[in-house]
Task: inverse folding
């Protein structure tokens, strides 16, 4: 796991805290109501809003769902320079039992929002997601990864790509060793459910390109 230094972690916590408070107040929610919607303790939310705490992937995604906003709305300061250079040593790592995520960029494109992550998946653990709005795009650069619906995940090797609706439960699990991959989260700009009729297949030239390996 790649760790940012104390200053980086403190700055990231302050950004999350400021965004969380602003989004909660914009939605007209009390801490108690947000705690109920996100299933996160009120005391934990208060700590996060103060810029303290060390939120997990599950915590951030729970807040994203409860507030109906993309994850990047919680984690990043809005900026749109002509050139963006991101150094890995300066990124906060968002971790769970099996996955380490580093957000590289948020892109607002017409009615869609894209979040680009460096994703590392550790062996011997399974990451379970209850689902969230939008689609997930995954490209494996090293290792073998099982990802997608728990009952029928896709198996991806180096260079393989898959896109799937993210609102249903899904998993991430390595096969035989650690995995390095790129994760692109795609949300509707209003952070609501994916638009009816929009699918991963509409983004590919061949709707049969994504197949199960195993």
Result:
């Amino acid at each position: 796991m790649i760790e940012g230094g104390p200053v980086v972690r403190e700055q990231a916590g302050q950004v999350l805290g400021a965004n969380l408070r602003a989004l909660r107040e914009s939605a007209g929610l009390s801490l108690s109501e947000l705690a109920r919607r996100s299933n996160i303790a009120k005391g934990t939310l208060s700590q996060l809003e103060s810029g303290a705490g060390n939120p997990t992937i599950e915590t951030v995604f729970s807040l994203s769902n409860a507030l109906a906003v993309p994850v990047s709305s919680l984690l990043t300061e809005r900026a749109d320079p002509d050139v963006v250079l991101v150094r890995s040593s300066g990124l906060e790592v968002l971790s769970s039992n099996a996955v380490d995520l580093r957000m590289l960029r948020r892109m607002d494109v017409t009615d869609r929002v894209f979040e680009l992550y460096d994703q590392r998946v550790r062996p011997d653990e399974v990451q379970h997601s209850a689902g969230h709005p939008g689609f997930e795009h995954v490209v494996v650069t090293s290792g073998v990864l099982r990802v997608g619906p728990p009952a029928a995940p896709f198996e991806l090797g180096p260079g393989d790509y898959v896109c799937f609706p993210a609102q249903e439960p899904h998993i991430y699990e390595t096969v035989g060793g650690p995995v390095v991959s790129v994760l692109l989260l795609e949300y509707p700009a209003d952070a609501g459910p994916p638009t009816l009729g929009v699918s991963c297949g509409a983004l590919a030239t061949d709707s049969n390109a994504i197949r199960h390996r195993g």
